[in-house]
Amino acid sequence: MVMNSGERWHCIHPACGCTVLVEANGEIEGQNPLCACGSNMKKGYSPPAVRYLDFLKVREPALLHRDPAKD
C-alpha cells in the first residue's frame, strides 16, 4: 500500500481510535499498515470531486440575458 505525505490513516479497531498523519512517502507491499495495537489501519475516505458528466468536457450553456422591459 502506498502512503503519501499528508494523508491521514486511522485504526479500524473501535476501542483504539488511533490516527496517524503521514509525514514521508512510503510503501508497504501487499498490506495496509498496522497500528500499535496490532489492527489494520485504513486511509480516510474523501468523496470524489467529479460532477455529473464532467468527463465529457462540455461547457454548460450560458444563460441568456433577457431584458424584461421588452417582453
What does this structure look like?
The chain has 71 residues and is an all-beta fold. The chain has one domain (1-71). It is built from no helices and 5 strands. The protein has a 3-stranded antiparallel sheet, with no helix packed on it. It has a two-stranded antiparallel sheet with strand order 1-4.
Gist of the model:
With 71 residues, the protein is mostly beta strands. It has no helices and five strands.
Strand content: 15-25%
Strand order of the largest sheet: 3-2-5
Indicate how many domains the architecture comprises: 1
- What is the string of helix and strand elements? EEEEE
Radius of gyration: 23 Å
**How many beta-strand elements?**
5
Cα end-to-end separation: 63 Å
Helix count from the secondary structure assignment: 0
Helix content: under 10%
Overall average residue pLDDT? 78
Low-confidence stretches: none
Shape: elongated
List keywords for this structure.
71 residues; mainly beta; 3-stranded antiparallel sheet; two-stranded antiparallel ribbon
Write the layout of secondary structure elements.
Blueprint: E1 2-3, E2 8-11, E3 19-21, E4 26-27, E5 41-43
Antiparallel strand pairs: 1-4, 2-3, 2-5
